[in-house]
């Protein structure tokens, strides 16, 4: 007898789970276990105690991304669409009612921080968060104005184009763009390296390189999503280690 006559692989099996491209159903193939139940408990406790984050760490291939994807869906999908999974997949007697009670009252707006970003300090980390919050709002068809660091810099440039054309010609920006229109176009694309160059040039000239405060930005974003039925914004940060914040 051959092995494939005894066991088989689910036809929907994927060797790698991608939290950004989940098709809406693959996450439900996840088999809950004790470590996952503890993750759910820690996450619910985070909200209840108003803590900042939950850290999830594990070796490559141990299921961190799949588990995080399940948490994301359980926290942000409509309760009616996840009730079957909760009923049939979650067996732990304390987790199931706690999750249902939380979801009856709350629904989080997910923002996924995953991919290639130019992050080397807290400021560029702020840029990445702003970029993904804006992308998440667009993805959810929430088309409300949310001022961010890129918008602030564009406004500043538009108000003094002659000054910025001089900066471009006499700075490292000339290697990236040829004029103000090209500069604002890159900022509209949320090019974080261009934004950083603009700020560096202002600092070199003794000018204020103010950017949007990340706390105020997230508070404004939270007010926007509350209009659409979300109680929280949750950042799912994916790196060599996965974490929820």
Structure explained in plain terms:
The structure is a single chain. α1 runs parallel beside α4 (95-105) and α6 (149-158) runs antiparallel to α8. This protein is 50% helix and 8% strand. A hairpin with a 3-residue loop joins β3 (232-238) and β4 (242-244). The protein has helices spanning 34-48, 64-76, 79-89, 95-105, 122-139, 149-158, 161-169, 180-188, 192-204, 214-226; strands spanning 54-56, 108-113, 232-238, 242-244. It has 245 residues and is α+β, with helices and mostly antiparallel strands. The chain has two domains: 9-114 and 228-244, no CATH class; 150-204, no CATH class. It is elongated and about 75 Å long. It starts with 33 loop residues before the first helix and ends with a strand. Residues 240-245 have low confidence and may be disordered. A four-stranded mixed sheet has the order 1-4-3-2.
């Amino acid at each position: 007898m051959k092995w494939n006559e005894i066991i088989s692989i689910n036809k929907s099996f994927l060797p790698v789970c991608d939290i950004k491209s989940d098709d809406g159903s693959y996450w439900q193939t996840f088999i809950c276990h004790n470590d996952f139940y503890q993750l759910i408990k820690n996450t619910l406790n985070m909200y209840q105690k108003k803590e900042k984050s939950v850290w999830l760490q594990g070796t490559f291939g141990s299921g961190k991304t799949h588990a995080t994807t399940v948490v994301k869906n359980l926290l942000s999908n409509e309760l009616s669409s996840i009730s079957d999974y909760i009923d049939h997949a979650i067996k732990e007697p304390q987790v199931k009612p706690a999750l249902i009670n939380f979801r009856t009252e709350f629904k989080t707006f997910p923002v996924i921080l995953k991919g290639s970003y130019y992050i080397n300090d807290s400021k560029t980390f702020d840029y990445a968060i702003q970029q993904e919050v804006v992308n998440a709002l667009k993805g959810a068809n929430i088309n409300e104005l949310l001022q961010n660091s890129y918008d602030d810099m564009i406004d500043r440039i538009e108000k003094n184009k002659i000054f910025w054309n001089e900066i471009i010609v006499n700075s490292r920006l000339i290697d990236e763009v040829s004029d103000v229109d090209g500069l604002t176009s890159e900022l509209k694309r949320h090019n974080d390296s261009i934004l950083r160059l603009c700020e560096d040039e202002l600092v070199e000239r003794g000018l204020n390189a103010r950017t949007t405060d990340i706390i105020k930005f997230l508070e404004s974003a939270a007010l926007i999503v509350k209009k659409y039925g979300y109680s929280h914004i949750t950042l799912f940060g994916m790196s060599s280690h996965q974490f929820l914040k």
